[in-house]
Amino acid sequence: MDRTRTTQWTAMVALLVSLVATGCGVSDRYDASELSPEQFAAAELVAEDWCVGTEGVFCPTLDGGSGDNRIVFRDSFSTTTILGEAAIPLTFSADSIEIRILTGLSDSVFKTVLRHELGHAGALRDDHLPPGNIMARTIAGNGEALVDTLTDADIDYVVSARE
Q1: Is 41 helix (H, G, I), strand (E, B) or coil?
Q2: Nearest-angstrom CA–CA distance, 45 and 11
Q3: Which H or E element spans position 112?
Q4: What are the extents of the domains in the chain?
Q5: DSSP helix/strand/coil, 31
Q6: Which helix (H) or strand (E) holds 13?
Q7: What is the side-by-side strand order in the sheet with 84-87?
């Protein structure tokens, strides 16, 4: 391997180690300026659930416009069954997260979708847990009740990713 390529690989490995050590450089502050006052209050409760549940390991904070990450609304997604998504930086060039939520959700569904998407953001991962957890791929369906509280598995999902 020539000297230039060795230098590039060394720099890439150093960057990767740095990103892993700092949680990929993504902060836990979210611009929630698109939320209504009611949604903002509900989102603060969801953020507090994560902070308390993880014993301070993941404490997302919301503000009216200066957060590094964003919570935004979308009128539709490519699949009609999707209610939200977290655009997580899986590349070295991205340093923020955008949580996208379908417009027009009821308050309880909004909170559950936000709780789920914040879990992906907090863990910086896109896999899922089995049904019955907030971090399951489907949080309700086929006559199942909406999952609206964090389970131990949900908490471990985020905490283990941040250790």
Answers
A1: helix
A2: 41
A3: helix 107-123
A4: 26-162
A5: strand
A6: helix 3-21
A7: 61-63, 29-31, 69-74, 98-102, 84-87
Instruction: Name the 3-class secondary structure at 18.
Output: helix
* pTM for this entry: 0.77
Q: Give the pLDDT confidence of 45-75 residue by residue, as tens digits.
A: 999 999 999 999 999 998 877 778 889 999 9
Residue 148 in tokens: 């609206």
pLDDT single digits (tens) 135-154:
988 776 656 677 888 999 99
Class of domain 26-162: alpha beta
Place of tokens 């997260």: 97
Written as one letter, the residue type at 116 is H
Phi, psi of 23 (to 5 degrees): 70, 35
The residue length of the chain stands at 163
